[in-house]
Write a structure and sequence with these properties.
By secondary structure, the chain is α+β, with helices and mostly antiparallel strands. Helices cover about 45% and strands about 20% of the residues. Strands 5-6-1-7-8 form a 5-stranded mixed beta sheet, sandwiched between helices. Strands 9, 10, 11, 12 and 13 form a 5-stranded antiparallel beta sheet that branches. The chain has a 3-stranded mixed beta sheet with strand order 3-2-4. A hairpin with a 4-residue loop joins strand 10 and strand 11. The longest helix is centred in the last third of the chain and has 21 residues. It is globular. The C terminus is likely disordered.
Length: about 400
């Protein structure tokens, strides 16, 4: 009975080619056709692609120009984050209302903890019914895998696609992972993969046989973690989903001001800092709030539910729109603040439909500099000039 009680049942659900599936739901003519979601220019990048294009070598984050050379007959559709955010929330509501504990890993991925459900209903049957319910409520195909932990369920979901299901029984975790290529292991990036392949480590089985001290010497703490995962061990818990999580910042000025150029530069500075934090944490925001306090201490705020994003360009535009609606008294301003909420896990690149490959690389380069030298190592010129001007001027 104690052994039975210690068993965990964790499922990972992944909406199949999410953006593509939503576009096909909106337009049935796309069903069965090679479809690419992304920017419309040759210099844009692929945000998502159908299975029909993948057999030609097309994949996400690929330059659109290259994708069209590989699959010239593909249909290109500009991404619609409003639709994707809507359907993500529809599926989120279905899962949240059905399962005991849910973690929203990204806009199209979920973990659910069904530990205990096996005693009363049966986890396998429960997941079949949940999959059918999601399909009925949203119209979207979804794949899942049921296992003893998050690692195994996530890896196995790839084998269940498209629109399928898979179950890895307790005790078979290591056997399941053994023949898989090391690139299938979460946590093994390109550099680590190259290093391991140079050592002759091509499968997870070989990885699992490397002594832990050697893995530690090779990769530090990450090596110990990979050694544990290669043996099918993953004790990480399901983190209950909450839309109340947020990040924000606000600033009270030493002297009240009505200088709109300065206020605009401060909004830019704060927004850039927060968007960097989002990308650093691999999160997206679905709600923006701007706060303003006048010199007479009247405090007002406005918020806007938006499509999930971590893009500077998108969020700066929303912040400025909200501030323009708030600032209606033409009084001196004492404080301004910006907050992002409704956070979910995800990469900012999925929202950059009109960004070129160069623009994506610019984001990455700027974030790399901030990660190394601090949040304010690089910023827009206007936010620097106006702050320096204010600090020098005796008239503020």
């Amino acid at each position: 009975m104690d052994l039975f009680d210690n068993k965990r049942f964790v499922a990972h659900l992944d909406l199949d080619t999410f953006f593509v599936s939503v576009e096909r739901l909106k337009n049935s003519k796309f069903i069965g056709k090679p479809l690419i979601v992304g920017g419309m220019s040759d210099r844009a990048v692929v945000s998502a692609c159908s299975y029909e294009t993948r057999k030609f070598g097309v994949h996400s984050a690929m330059p659109m120009k290259l994708a069209m050379r590989l699959c010239p007959h593909a249909i290109v559709v500009r991404g619609d984050m409003d639709s994707y955010s809507y359907y993500s929330r529809v599926v989120t509501d279905v899962v949240r209302e059905t399962v005991p504990v849910m973690e929203k890993a990204s806009v199209d991925e979920f973990y659910v903890d069904l530990t205990g459900v096996d005693r009363f209903f049966g986890c396998s049957q429960f997941m079949i019914e949940l999959k059918n319910k999601i399909k009925k409520e949203s119209g979207l195909p979804i794949s899942y895998a049921l296992a003893s932990n998050k690692l195994i369920s996530k890896v196995a979901t790839d084998d269940a696609k498209p629109d399928g299901r898979k179950e890895i029984l307790h005790g078979l975790e290591k056997d399941y992972l053994a023949p898989l290529k090391i690139q299938r292991m979460p946590g093994i990036g390109e550099k680590t993969s190259v290093l391991l392949l140079q050592m002759g480590v091509s499968t997870i089985k070989i990885l699992s046989e490397i002594p832990v001290p050697m893995m530690h010497n090779l990769l530090g703490k990450n090596g110990i973690d990979l050694s544990r995962k290669a043996n099918g061990i993953d004790p990480s818990p399901i983190i209950p989903y909450s839309e109340q999580k947020s990040i924000g910042t606000e600033e009270t000025f030493m002297q009240d001001t009505i200088d709109m150029q300065f206020l605009n530069s401060e909004l830019i500075r704060m927004t850039e800092r927060l968007t960097f934090q989002l990308r650093k944490q691999e999160r997206l925001t679905g709600c923006v709030t701007v706060k303003l306090r006048y010199a007479n201490f009247d405090t007002v705020s406005k918020q806007m539910v938006i499509s999930y994003t971590a893009s500077d360009t998108v969020l700066l535009k929303k912040v400025k729109e909200l501030f323009a609606k708030l600032y209606d008294k033409r009084m001196l301003v004492r404080l301004i603040g910006v907050r992002f909420s409704h956070l979910v896990q995800g990469s900012q690149q999925i929202n950059l439909f009109e960004d070129t490959e160069e623009a994506v690389r610019l984001y990455q380069a700027m974030d790399a500099m901030r990660a190394r030298y601090g949040d304010e190592a690089i910023k827009r010129a206007i936010s620097v000039k106006e702050r320096e001007k204010r600090e020098r001027s005796p008239h503020f």
